[in-house]
Amino acid sequence: MFSKDSLSYEALPLPDRLDYSDAEMQAEAAKFLAHMRKRHSIREFSDRPVAREVIADCIRTAGSAPSGANHQPWFFAAVSSAELKQRIREEAEAEERKFYDGGAPDEWIKALEPIGTTAEKPHLTIAPWLIVVFAQRWGTFEDGSRYKNYYVPESVNIATGFLLAALHTAGLSTLTHTPNPMRFLNGALGRPEAEKPTMIIAVGHPADTATVPGVAKWKKPLEEISAFFE
């Protein structure tokens, strides 16, 4: 996409405009809020299949996110292979056992108690898809030389938010998982040194017995997460 010889600015007319009235804007904002409030992280998945093209369209949505210098420093590895999911689960659980067996401070373990998590991660093999998010710390030109990516964590975080919203809009449930360290994912998925794995997202339909922790229903009120300066 990038070339050393052709890096020029071209101004194009804004291709898409949403021209809502004030009332329509309020209605759309309230509609999206209600929609996103139905999103829940789950740990009990059904093995019901999900079509590849659904996942592909959600990743396309993630790829439309803004990024530093439009370098789009992300890569999404979508895994449905049972063999690969098993490998990822085994290696993730090995890291998680270290975490729960003394690798994490007591305060962190205490904070997780209301969530009910353990080192066992069956969702990594039951969910029909795992999407592993990678952050690309640098890119390469056609001649193999490197160029720097900018605002990589911020850009990848925005794209991941787009992805989670798209998956929810498609009627799917998700669980974000961040074993630490995660470099084993580069080897499992054949990703280069330039890419840093940031997250595993389990994707699928909830099991009939799926639950959510009671504490997950509590969200901070507006006055605790925002301030308006008018």
Commentary on this structure:
There is one protein chain. Helix 2 (52-62) packs across helix 6 (152-169). 38% of the residues lie in helices and 15% in strands. The longest helix has 22 residues, at 82-103. The chain has helices at 22-36, 52-62, 82-103, 106-112, 123-126, 152-169, 184-189, 222-225; strands at residues 74-79, 129-136, 138-140, 146-148, 173-177, 195-204. The chain contains eight helices and six strands; from the N terminus they run H-H-E-H-H-H-E-E-E-H-E-H-E-H. The chain has 230 residues and is α+β, with helices and mostly antiparallel strands. It has one domain: NADH Oxidase. The strands form two sheets. Strands 1-2-6-5 form a four-stranded antiparallel β-sheet. Strand 3 and strand 4 form a beta hairpin. GO terms for molecular function: oxidoreductase activity. InterPro entries: Nitroreductase, Nitroreductase-like, Nitroreductase/BluB. Keywords: Flavoprotein, FMN, Oxidoreductase. This is Nitroreductase family protein. Residues 37-205 form the Nitroreductase domain.
List keywords for this structure.
globular; oxidoreductase; 8 helices; four-stranded antiparallel β-sheet; Nitroreductase/BluB; alpha+beta; Nitroreductase family protein; single chain; flavoprotein; NADH Oxidase; 230 residues; two-stranded antiparallel sheet; FMN
